[in-house]
Amino acid sequence: MRDMQPSVRPAAVAGMFYPGSAAALARDLRQLLADSEHSTAARPKAIIVPHAGYIYSGPIAASVYAPLATWRDEIRRVVLLGPTHRVAVNGLAIPSTTAFATPLGRVSVDGAARAAIQHLPQVVVSDAAHAAEHSLEVQLPFLQTVLADFSLLPLAVGRASPAQVAEVLECLWGGDETLFVISSDLSHYLPYAVARDVDADTARCIVALDARLDHQQACGATPVNGLLLAARRHGLRAALIDLRNSGDTAGDRSRVVGYGAFAFTREPAHD
Fold it and tell me: What is the 3-state secondary structure (H, E, C) of the chain?
């Protein structure tokens, strides 16, 4: 009889970017989240988080993930976008698989969300783009820890315009049940002091919803710019939650990678 088991994208960077055993991973995540002293008063519609190994960027990622536990039962769909690092893609790649796995278990891919954007010309199906991509995978254990039951739509973003990314986000905007997660590091391999200045300028652009970032400022500039366009259209406000680099966490300061955490919430009504 033909095997009818659903196809699952297995963890590709467990044991490298984060612990490979469920017990060690759960322990490290608990510690990272417990050490975070950040909070957001309003429910985020979107967040920007870094995607390096947890020893480097985990504390910065935790700063924006920890507050999501307040809405763990309300957020039921996560649309996750990150840049491709290994496989070139024209457009935004969705997987054909039905789930993504980590040492903490499986997360179901949202078939309805996938179908809702497949008519767009910039959306392609590519399992190869997802097979070894770390920018999306490293976010999943955090999401599995801070949220309850949720479905996932992972998008590996290659050659696309910010407007094309924003169009995809618009199709999936939804309500309070939907959270957008944009995975991006900031500057790469600059001296510590230079990186601090460059990343501070990038953070100012993001908070101002200035969708003109380049890939020297952020490796995920394309999905970040797309989010900034959508955020402006929907009247969201961006807040900087944490801004550090690998020289602050676990690396030397001669060549560092920048990490920023941002939360996007609805603008309060004004009289």
Answer: CCCCCCCEECCCCECCCECCCHHHHHHHHHHHHHHCCCCCCCCCCEEEECCCCHHHHHHHHHHHHHHHHHHCCCCCEEEEEEECCCCCCECEEECCCCEEEECCEEEEECHHHHHHHCCCCCEEECHHHHHCCHHHHCCHHHHHHHCCCCEEEEEEECECCHHHHHHHHHHCCCCCCEEEEEECCCCEEECHHHHHHHHHHHHHHHHCCCCCCCCCCCCCHHHHHHHHHHHHHCCEEEEEEEEEEHHHHCCCCCCEEEEEEEEEEECCCCC
